[in-house]
Amino acid sequence: MSAADRIAGKKAELDRLRPASGRSLATLAAWYEVELTYTSNAIEGNTLSRSETAIVLEKGLTIGGKPLKDHLEALGHRDALHFVRSLATAGEPVREVDIREIHRLIMARIDPEEAGRYGRRQRMIAGSTLVLPSPIDIAPLMGEFARWLGAATHDPATAFEAHARLVAIHPFSDGNGRTARLLMNLLLMQAGYPPVVIGPEQRAVYIDALQALQLGADEAPYRRFMADRLEASLNHHLDILRLGAEQPEPG
Which of 128, 137, 199, 249 is the most interior residue, by most CB within 10 Å? Predict the structure, then answer.
């Protein structure tokens, strides 16, 4: 069975389980708030552990010996994730202004001057030969990207391509990866899928697959990687919802 067929089958089972799984879905949402924040920031070098991220988000406490920036990044990602979830619930097409707002929320606490603004200087990716668009081209490229996004179908392929396209445009001075991952997960949630988690232990494979796609060498590793991560999220959701279905309601 192909990955696409497995994903379709698990999505169908998830849809069957959802109506009677309110408490389990709430538990999953709380878990993913920490997990998505921890993993997305860790990929970018944030030093908070998973448990430390949970303490910052759930208790509002700071962790001794950790940079203030790491705490503020956790809070900013949490704020952006809340906005993404509100957009997913509304079900409206994603606009260019929504992407900028996701970025603004991510960066507002750590770099308010650049939050939500397109980069004004030429950017480079350390360790990569990829040539990024010049600042003067960013606004037209983002307009074109938003038009494509508005006409695209709601499915995982669109979510994965949107992530890759936004990373390739690299419109912001910082926070592009976090914004692209949240955009991808917004599109997945709008289509009824769970969000994808990419952990720091997968960083090298993730970056290499993106680079191969962007340099035109091979798109298969990227598609395969993202499908694997989506299937892992589906498996996790199904495991939790099946357990919840086995528990009698209190009463």
Answer: 199
